[in-house]
Fold:
Amino acid sequence: VQDRPLRLSGTNSSTGTSVRVGTLHTEPQNLATGAQEVAVLQLSENRIAAKLLDPANPLKKTATVELAIDDTRIEGAYAIALDGLRRWFQTYTDAPDAAVTGSIDGRLGISQAPGDRIKARVTAAAPSLSAGDHSANTLHVQLNLDLPHRYPFDAVKLEPDSLIKAGRLDIYGVSLGDMQLKLSGDLLVADGGWQYAGAVIADALTVKYASREIALESIHAQISADPELLEVEGEFAPATLPGRFGYALSHRLLGHTGSLSVTPLEAIDLNAGDYRLSQLMTPWPYSFDILTGILELSADAAWSRSRAFSLTTTSRLENTGGYFDELV
Structure:
């Protein structure tokens, strides 16, 4: 807020304190308009309420939070209109522009726990969100946190009942549908850096890329991340065929380079039922299909800013039968 004059006003009484912040117009043609109110804070013995006002419409709230406080517990709710919050930061601060749209509502709960610990629960719900090339709809986030009483954000434990749900999540050109991820892990912050290690479990997930869709189930992932590197390894099974795969992903966050390797753990046995290989992907893009036999499929992918995405696949077939263009 450098070089932006502000006016602070307030009232204090036996029922509480109200503080209002406004920007002063210093241009000669706008001096008569006085201060435009931009934020309001209200305090009482057991309540805090704050709101930011939309610069385009001061009667409209762009962000609100209200907390009820007692000796051992804080409970509250918040709401954020991201379009208005973006305008607020553009108008009143030197913060860089961020192309984020949508709205978020949620609740916050904090309480003391035995052993000098703090328990926190944060929820967020958004009908639709967009940030650059990424977007989500019908998003719900629930984070259950266990924190030390002293320096609570130096060691944050994400408890196993945390989750992320979304009707659809689009990220880096990949669309994840009907998603419910169960999360757990530990975040350590020290010396200006951070490190995360955790797990993700999903009973089912639909992955869509380049108009092709694959249904997966029994998905497990172990995640390790720091400011430079993201590593993920785990297992998954196709929902439409028997079989199971392992995978390992590595992505350098600063260099934007990465690789993915998928290997068979259990072969696809088409003889185990009324199966065919084309059930793996919708729509099936090839003019052949395999109807019987045992298959093992592997894939390796790599990407970077300087080179095009590359994908190599290999397969091992045993006693297979099917057709190419016509039955053979």
Q: What stands out?
A: DSSP finds one helix and 20 strands in the chain. The longest helix spans residues 82-92.
